[in-house]
Design a protein that fits this description.
This protein is mainly alpha-helical and about 90 residues long. The protein has a domain at about 55-80. It has helices spanning about 25, 60-65, 70-80; strands at about 30-35, 35-40. Strands 1-2 form a two-stranded antiparallel sheet.
C-alpha cells in the first residue's frame, strides 16, 4: 500500500512554495567583490596536517587509547619530540 491516496493532504504545511527573502537569508548568501568570491569561515592554514596511513601493533594502539581523550594529539607530540634532527649537508 505505497500508492498515494487521491484525496491526501499536501505534504508541505506552507502552501506558498517560494520562501520570503529575509535579512538573515541575504546575510547567508555568497558575497562577491567584482568577480571575486569572498570566502567565509575559517581561513586556510599555512601548514595543514597531512593524513598518514601507519600500521602499528594493536597493543601500542590500545595503550595510547587507554590513556584517554586526546591520545592522537599526545602521540603526535611524542613523535615530534623524538623526531631525528635534520642532517647537515
Amino acid at each position: 500500500m505505497n500508492a498515494k491516496r487521491k484525496n491526501s493532504a499536501p505534504s508541505s504545511p506552507d502552501p506558498d512554495p517560494l520562501p520570503e527573502i529575509t535579512d538573515d537569508w541575504v546575510a547567508g548568501a555568497d558575497l562577491y567583490h567584482g568577480d571575486q568570491l569572498v570566502r567565509r569561515g575559517r581561513p586556510k592554514l599555512a601548514h595543514p596536517k597531512q593524513l598518514l596511513s601507519l600500521r602499528l601493533p594493536p597493543q601500542t594502539i590500545a595503550r595510547w587509547k587507554a590513556s584517554g581523550p586526546g591520545w592522537q594529539t599526545r602521540m603526535a607530540e611524542a613523535l615530534e619530540k623524538s623526531a631525528p634532527k635534520p642532517r647537515r649537508a
